[in-house]
Amino acid sequence: MxxxxxxLAAGTDAGYLSRIERGERQPSLPLLESIASALExxxxxIFVAAEGLEHSLATEDSSQVNFxxxxxxxxIKLRLTFRELSKVNQRxxxxxxxxxxxxxxxx
Length: 107
Fold this sequence. Notes:
By secondary structure, this protein is mainly α. It has helices at 3-10, 14-21, 29-39, 43-51, 73-84, 87-103, and strands at 56-58, 64-66.
């Protein structure tokens, strides 16, 4: 999900969302809730990310997913894309990532 897609789903624009990410603006609670909904996480997950704490985040459907502390754009894209895969393709993706990790030369 791109920043533009998140902004559109949250009812704001990408520029304003970018300023929030950089700490230049503070979102209202309703906007924060809209952003969380667009990302399919609970609003508390955004606070956890801002504080840099490891936390098991509950998605909108209340299933528990451990997202750790990596809230980089690539990590978020990876998680969102993974959720959209079928169970079979999720297994293939996990196997592929494990093979990549095993064969990399640097940690």
